[in-house]
Amino acid sequence: MKKLKVLTTPRLILDEIGTDDAATIFELFSNDAVLEFYDVKKLTRREKAHDLVVHFHQKWLDQQAYRYAIRLKDENFPHSSSTRLIGSFGVNRVLEVDGQYGVVIGCELHPDYWQKGYMSEVLSRILMELKTQA
Length: 134
What we know:
It is built from four helices and five strands; from the N terminus they run ββαααβββα.
């Protein structure tokens, strides 16, 4: 089975969201502050987070979209695989018109990690990766 390519930034690891991440996905997608400007329904039941993770994975398998877990690097990285999920970032569509590209994205970050520059790191790395695929 094709795996999502792991990307890194100086402070973060961007990799596949797994079913073991469902508890944190629930935290994110049930948080009013996180969802304030997001056009998704708030999760109200924990089992729905598992369904959402499965949905993300199916979109990847169907080559319709992909969603990266945003994880903090452990201070022992790369010798330790211990990382904390703090958010996610999805590329939902890549559009090409007359040689110009546009991307539809979605992202969420736990409020404890706002205003620390993490999303700028993520976006820079994702855009770099998209340019290599174009």
